[in-house]
Amino acid sequence: MHAITKITTSVKAFPLKEGGGTDSVHTDPVYSYAVTHLHTDSKISGTGIVFTIGAGNREICSLIEGLAESLVGCEIEELMSQFGVAFRQMADHPQYRWLGPHKGMVHLALASITNACFDLWAKSRGVPLWRLLLDLSAEQIVNTLDLGYLEEVLTKEGALGILLDHENSRSEREEILELGYPGYDTSIGWFNYSDEQVRENVKKAVAAGFTAMKLKVGSPETERDIRRAYLVREGAGADAKVMLDVNQSWTLPKAISTSKALSDMSPYWIEEPTQPDDVFAHQTLAREIAPIDIALGEHVSNRVLFKNFMQAEAVKFVQVDCTRVGGISEFITVSLLARKFGLPVVPHVGDMGQIHQHLVLFNHIAMGHEALFLEHIPHLREYFLHPSVVNGGIYETPQEPGTSSDFV
Amino acid sequence: MHAITKITTSVKAFPLKEGGGTDSVHTDPVYSYAVTHLHTDSKISGTGIVFTIGAGNREICSLIEGLAESLVGCEIEELMSQFGVAFRQMADHPQYRWLGPHKGMVHLALASITNACFDLWAKSRGVPLWRLLLDLSAEQIVNTLDLGYLEEVLTKEGALGILLDHENSRSEREEILELGYPGYDTSIGWFNYSDEQVRENVKKAVAAGFTAMKLKVGSPETERDIRRAYLVREGAGADAKVMLDVNQSWTLPKAISTSKALSDMSPYWIEEPTQPDDVFAHQTLAREIAPIDIALGEHVSNRVLFKNFMQAEAVKFVQVDCTRVGGISEFITVSLLARKFGLPVVPHVGDMGQIHQHLVLFNHIAMGHEALFLEHIPHLREYFLHPSVVNGGIYETPQEPGTSSDFV
Predict the structure, then answer these.
(1) Are A52 and A176 contained in the same domain?
(2) Is B184 helix (H, G, I), strand (E, B) or coil?
(3) Residues within 8 A of B (CB atoms), A 28-87 only
(4) Its pTM surpasses 0.80
(5) How far apart are CA A50 and CA A36, in angstroms?
(6) Which of B100, B126, B152 is the last residue of a domain?
(7) Is the ipTM above a cut-off of 0.90?
């Protein structure tokens, strides 16, 4: 028995080395976390993180403390056996809901709380998150989810069906636990890096075993974007997957023209081309620039907007982030939706890959999602108690109990 | 000259009388404001409000203080001459932007700031907001807006065009200033009111001169919704406009079936039938239940989502609220969009109609929007220094300088 006795919060903030983490829109990031701590009557505690780039952490912590109040006194197994209900009660809190709903800071607070609940649950069973999730029955998984507002595309029965359909073939996919999950390198080409730095980083990434990497574009001078994109392609080779990340800085007309101008270097995807609520702009763009694919999700707040992007065929690579949507629970919901629509999930890693390394293993084994690759950003390794280990471009399967979210 | 010397914030919270303000989702509201105060080197100060239903005010105030810092030292005429630029800089602040973008609490903070800037501007000229806006040239109006991410449907030239096209015919519409703007009564049928109370309130509303009124529905028992809807229709008469407000509590399948079941009492609109990010659900619903119209906007965060709803033909009555989107500036942007799409603007009044009574006059006179009616909720009258005056169901044109946002 592990009952939640007290809830506290803390802020972790880590300035980056010069130019690191910069993109065309976020020019001055301080990688930060608003952290939920679930204390129990035993020695175990749950840690949940949600990511920001500096501002707002204190305010999110204050929201967490207000929103999580109802969890005090809950026994963790009992709570998680119907977590979908608790999730909905927090998401639809009669006063906090007004501040979203299901988006912005109040949803970030919910993510931090949810992630702490799953962390405590896995630790209380003494297993890593991926193991916990794989050990649950389809019914138990679905009971952790809120499928509300998805009725016309994904019912409870539909969600159960996806999980049950992949049960018998699990063993084929479990070899990923030994092989490790492929990573891709996001740190070769932050926006403020010089061309020379990018060239060097590409060399290092290739030498380290990465066959996929990402460059920040979205410069006011399209020429700079094009020059750097070709520079990466040249260094990485024709077979490497090179992704271009715009971080929302283009208008639709500019997205169409610049994507076309970049098509000859064969980007594997164009990421976040424009404003992340704009389903129709992305739909138009997807049609205009096919066969170039669109990736997005880093700033898509909830399952409902993801549903709309999928219905519109406005996204190919679903970059849902469990530190943006309402935590691990809504991440799984969106992954089920993506499976239903036949789309790959390639998470954005606001958590630096710590939690998502568990979740992509679950997605692959339990839902049959392709084991494509997971974003890798190493800048905060030294601050985590159990940093993810990436060797030869491959994430090693984490073995410590919980969600790998504890800080040193 | 009125330069901003200091920015402070305050919280105003007003518990309601029993059952007042309740709906199917927000069951326990405390009507509240996170208030921005712009102090100047003169005697004038600017007051900006943003609405919540209780939780989160303190956190919004903290965001306001961080986000508005850059305005200290600005001279108000100079600031407002290019307010669109300042608005974008705050909306796209390199760290705060992560918390939205353009939605949730960080956007509520921006709304409060923006509304304070317009309040200070109007007061510094000694005129009510509607007069200030009508006195500005089309170019000056457009310079207060951020039209980013709308390029494919509304350019700067397009926005100017709408205003210029309606300049010559303004005098015909200026008679509204004498006649007053029609109101509709939202307070007849809060969710927790008994049938008897609703019946009484309808009588009072009719006696007070209202020909339009709104009932809260969205009960788990559809029968209750139907019974009460007919009860209002009976009391209000066949010619009255009766609106039904679901406050997002239906799923799409339930929205379709219940709207159809309610069609015989001829609702003037069905409001917020389901989750407010769900463009496609509303599109499907609009097609299924035509000719019943859909109203929404109370929880639509920004111009981009409004654009999508309009592109999808998923909304008829645009209920943009300057205490939900980024303040008066984005309210005008959305009103221009609505004009472009030929849709009426009927604001939701998180401000209790204090600011919107100015804005609907501007929309009607300067853009040619139909003077349909403005929501009226009297519960906070006693707390405002210059409460809106509604007589015979008609809003009297406010004459005091500013946006009518000061509290007693």
Answers:
(1) no
(2) strand
(3) 28-30, 52-56, 58-59, 62-63, 66
(4) yes
(5) 9
(6) B126
(7) yes
